[in-house]
Amino acid sequence: MPHPHRTLLLSLPLLYAANVFAQDAPKVVGDCANIADNVARLACFDKLAATPAPRTEAAVVVNSADGAPATTVPVVTAQPSAESSARFSQLDHWELDAPYERGVFKFRPHHASYLIATRTYRPNEEPYEPYRLTGDADLSKSELAFQLSFKMKMVEGAFGKPVDLWFGYTQNSFWQAANSEASSPFRETNYQPEVMAIAPIGIEIGGVQLRHVGLGLNHQSNGQSGTLSRSWNRLYAQFGIEKGGLSATARVWKRLSEDDDDNPDLVDYMGRGDLALAYRRDGHIYSSTMRYNFHTDRGAIQAGWAFPLAGNLKGYAQVFAGYGQSLIDYNYFQRSIGLGVLGLF
Question: Is the model more confident about 62 or about 117?
Fold first, then answer.
């Protein structure tokens, strides 16, 4: 006959493990709010919202010493959520996995949102020459550049398929803030609304995960008229992959024809696609976006480094070289370097 004290001792590790598991799981919002790291705090909130009620996982049989019927002591543990077993994905701002789904009309990051002080190698004076008066100040090599970019899901599960419809908006401006001689003008502002259909894909090849595919319709313009007007429309396809801390999003596009085209040679400089890379480690984000037209031998590269500062605010350094930093400069080779802050939300 088994000894009751031995059976009880064997059950203690199970009871201890269940207790540790329960302590590690967040119980109230305050448990998550005290986490300093942004990614970990968001994962904690998502886990708290997704974790169902506890259930009985196992039972330990304890035999009594006097021969009475055995009693069953249940070991209760929390039901693990889908997120607790899923690896964190850098591309889950697209809400590709169930634990990250936030419903419709919720703001999500799209492209980077930042404010930086920049220094250019040589400003592009040519487009503004027809509008200058004698004695007007030249453009300054120093500017403040800022970009605001967000997206929101408009329809979840469109067409009865696992396809989400998104609306995105990006605006970036170049402000001659320190050029008081020229009345500190906004040299250029670009507006970029777009609609996107994104479908999650769960394919892994050689340790590389294909995470999503999608289609998008994009309009970009600078809101100007006359010889300063720049705009184009494009239909693009994209896919996203990742491996470990590295993610890549590639797009190929087709420019849509326009009756009144202000810049018919724009694709010669902007190319027919781009590749965006991002690598995250220890709170740092290393990123780059590349474009290249193999027929005209023109393109551009923008590289960035975001590093921890405080909360959702990161320091941000950016380097750009090539064509198309802004629409007014689409056919002008530019080199610039900038330093400022980047916001996460």
Answer: 117
CA nearest neighbour of 263 among 290, 216, 293, 226? 226
Q: Is the pLDDT of residue 173 over 60?
A: yes
Q: What is the pLDDT of residue 2?
A: 43
- Whether residues 195 and 304 share a domain: the answer is yes
Residues 75 and 129 in one domain: no
The tokens describing 12, both together, are 């203690």
Which of 85, 113, 138 is where one domain is finished?
Answer: 85
Which of 64, 85, 106 corresponds to the end of one domain? 85
- CATH code, domain with 255: 2.40.230.10
Q: Is 3 a catalytic residue?
A: no
CA contacts within 13 A on the Cβ side of 125: 11
Task: Find the domain containing 273 and state its range.
Answer: 92-343
The secondary structure of 91-159 as a DSSP string is: TGGG--SGGG---SS-EEE-S-EEEEEEEESS---GGGGGGPPTTPPPPPSEEEEEEEEEEEEEESSGG
pLDDT digits (tens, 9 = 90+) for 80-92: 333 333 344 567 7
Which one of 11, 221, 229, 288 is the catalytic residue? 221
Q: Give the angle 101-102-107 at the CA atoms, nearest 5°.
A: 125
Mean pLDDT of 47-62: 47
Q: Give CA torsion, residues 338, 310, 85, 89, to 10 deg.
A: -10
**Beta-carbon contacts of residue 284 (< 8 Å; ≥ 6 apart):** 305, 306, 307, 308
Q: How far apart are CA 221 and CA 223, in angstroms?
A: 6
Within this chain, do residues 75 and 100 fall inside the same structural domain, yes or no?
A: no
Which candidate in 11, 89, 111, 219 is catalytic? 219
Active site residue 221: yes
Q: How many domains does the chain have?
A: 2
Q: E strand or H helix at 79, and its extent?
A: none
Residue 14: per-residue pLDDT: 39
Q: Which residues, at least 6 apart from 194, have a Cβ–Cβ distance to it below 8 Å?
A: 167, 168, 169, 170, 216, 217, 218, 219
| Cβ contact 231:222 at 8 Å | yes
